[in-house]
Structure formats: C-alpha cells, structure tokens
Amino acid sequence: MRLSSILATGVMLAGLVAVPPPAYAAPGEKLHASRTVIGPNGVKHTRYDRTYQGLPVLGGDVITHGDQAPESRTLSTLTTLSTTPQVSGPAATAIAVKSFPFKPSGSPQLVIEGIGDTAAARVPALAWDVLVTGTRPDGLPTALHVLVDAATGAIRTTYDDVQADTGHGFHSGDVPLTTAPSGTSRILRDPTRGNFGTYDVDTQRYFTDSDGDWADGRPSNAATDAVDVQWGAAVTYDFYKQTFGYTLVQNSEFSDGPSTLNAGVHEGSRLSNAYWSEQCHCMRFGDGNGVTTNPYTSLDVVAHEATHSVISRTAKLWYSGESGGLNEATSDIVGNLVEFFAANPADPPDYLVGEKVWKAAPLRYMDRPSKDGVSADCWSPTVGSLNVHRSSGVGNHAFFLLANGSGTSAWGDSPTCDGSTVTGIGRDTAARLWFHALDTQWTSSTNYAGARTGMLAAATELYGECGTEYRAVQAAWSAVAVTAVDQPCP
Description:
There is one protein chain. The chain has eight helices and 24 strands. It is α+β, with helices and mostly antiparallel strands. Strands 1, 2, 3, 4, 5, 6, 7, 8, 9 and 10 form a ten-stranded mixed beta sheet that branches. Strands 11, 14, 15, 16, 18, 19 and 20 form a seven-stranded mixed beta sheet that branches. The chain has a three-stranded antiparallel beta sheet with strand order 12-13-17, with no helix packed on it. The relative contact order is 0.11.
C-alpha cells in the first residue's frame, strides 16, 4: 500500500530565507539559513546553522517556527567564550591519532563544540575538529571526527562521517529501470530522478549496457548488484517525492555529471556491509561473503543508506549517543516504509531490517528489537553508550507501536516497557509525523526525549493539540520508557 502524499494537505518546500535580524543572535554569533519548510497551516519552519566569532558551532543549529525567535534543543545562546586555543592544532592531532590510530586528513579546524545527550555534555567549548581516516577492523572505511578540547587536550566526543549498517540484501527480481543514452549504449544513470547513477567502485565507472537488458540476476554478473541498487534508489526517490515532497539530491563524487546522489557497488573484498559516506555524499554496497551473507543490495538496505543523506540535509543528527541511535532508527524505519511503498512480490514488506542479506536471520526487528539479542527495547540512562545500531531499537520500537499498536498483530508481537496498551494510528500517519519532526523540529543533538517533544509539536501542527495523534505519540514514547512533561491535555 502506498503512503498518502503529504503534498495533498498543503505541506510544501520553500526557498531559503534571509538571515533573521541581528537581535536574534548574541554578540559574536551569526545564524545562516539553510532550509525552510512551510507547514499545512502556513507556519514557516526555518533551519539555521550557527557560527560564533566566525567558527562553526557544532550542535548549535536552531529552528524558527513562524515569527518566533530561533529555538534550539541543543545549545542556548552562547555566552562570552574565548576563541584562543591553549592546545595547538598539531598537538590536538597527535592526541587524536594516539587514541584512534588512523591517518590524519587535512588540517584540524577550530570549532565551538556542544554535542551530547546531556546538558553537561552540551556546555559549549572551544575544540579542535581533527579528521582521521582509514579502515576499521570490520573492513569499513572510517572518516572519524575527533573533537579535542582546545583548552585541556581532552577528547570531548567523536562522530563518524561514514554511517554504516549491516543489512540483509538479495536481488529484487525483474524490475523496470530508467537509464540514459551513452553513444550507442545505455548508461546506468536516471535522468528523471536527479541523474542518479550506480558505478563500479573498482573501475570508478558507471555501468553500461548495449541493449538495455541489464544483468542476469546472478551475483557472478557484476551488473546484477548495480540493478538492485539502481532500482532501489529509484523507488526510494519516488517514495520521498510522492510522500513528503522531498527530492533526493546531493553533490556528485565525479566531475562528469550534474549534482546528484550516487551509489557504488562491489565495495571492498567480500564486504558484508553497506554504508553512507558524508565525505563523498554517496552510498557504497559490499558483495557479502557468499557464505553467511548475500550482496548488501536489498531494497530496505538501499533506502536505509539513502535516508542518511536525507538526515544530513534536515536534522543532521550526530552519529553518536542517542542522536546516533535516532539517526539509525530513522533509516531503519524508512527502509521498511519503502518496502511497503514498492509492494514488490520478490521482497514482501515487513518490519524487519536486512532480512534478505544475512542468511540466518534478520539483522534487526522493529516489533521487539531485543529479539536480535543486543538491541534495546526501552530507553535507559545508559542507552546512549550503546552502538548506534543497538540504541536505535528505542526509536524503532516507538515507531512500530505508534503505527501498529502493542500486542499481537500481522507484523509481530510488540510488548511495552511500562505494561501499557498502545493503539496504533496507522503506518501512513506515523510516517508523516516522524518525517515532519525530522524536517521541522529535530536538531543535530536531539536525544530520545527531544524526539518525543518534537513529534508532539509535529502532531500539534499537523493534527491539532491533544487530538488522537498527539495522544498516540505520547503513548508510544511512554511505552518505550521515554517520558517528559508534556502540554497538559483535558
């Protein structure tokens, strides 16, 4: 079943707006408009990135709602803060490399850092942003930002530009493709969807075909994985466009085409993984090892990785702590939503993650995340210390409950953490609420409590305060132990 289009109810995108009056910013601060969304009631939501004394403020992004002053759920207005480092850039690089033995990339950059799940972690400080790159033990590349306190030399936090997931992918069967002419051949680029293309990581060339009859469905054919990814990206593109009015477009890694989101297949040697890279604004997919894993090109994996690009252009959720779990949960959720949108008989929709990649079992379960043995069903004060693929269970569970309710359903058997009974409001409505919060409410350091608050604000704007949807959001988040003091309802 396809999700109803959000455009039908009046939500539309607008262009960038002017920077707000200086009165909105403290001395030394500047706010830079990056995205505007106009809600169904005409309320304009505008995102701003922040600088202080010319330095980027990490975790300091803010949002205005209508004529309100900018609102931030991460950092309040900065007070006087010295921008003179006591620790040099080279010293900060040495500290970073000692703790993370990768290769430094470029020069360290001074920033104001206030990333974290707690108020204490969000106290802004001058820091060096040291980027180190290399290959992790699991075979994936890393582009790790190490934030070193410029006064003390302590490592404040880290986050990775490579946002990876271990999926479960197989081929999607016989599927339609839109490609472009290239001389007497066809090239695997889609001119109707932002010129999106799929290339071979080894050759750095887009796939071509002489007669438009691509691959043969076997992993031994190099183009088979490319067909799965190209089709998966096209379906994901259509899902975002038709459902939310959002267009998947990013900068091209190559110089031979316009700005677009690209994908590479045959990454690594028998790599059992797929990932999104903020460095190249591209997705990369491994072939799997052929023994325990299939190629990492299933529809939910492709949609998952493409959603990381959406997050990088909207809430910019940091890939660490609870915001990292929320980032991964959002990608998991959309992976499943795109399966329902596609309704492909070769890959029936479900609330499993990567069920066609790993041969033994799904990678993650949304109805009861702990079924994988490691993911969290419920929020706890330590959930932010888990790997982001495990802490994502809290968000996945909340969405499942919001869409389908608790107890036994056609999609699983979902318990609650507080023993309550939750009545679902349907997948379409749950998806609309989640995306509207991502696009208009959440910021880079939004934790699970902030996710709840943002979704309640989205419910109020889209459906009215204290209505069925508002109360369902409250019930779903409370059922995964994410509580807050909300607006009282009669």
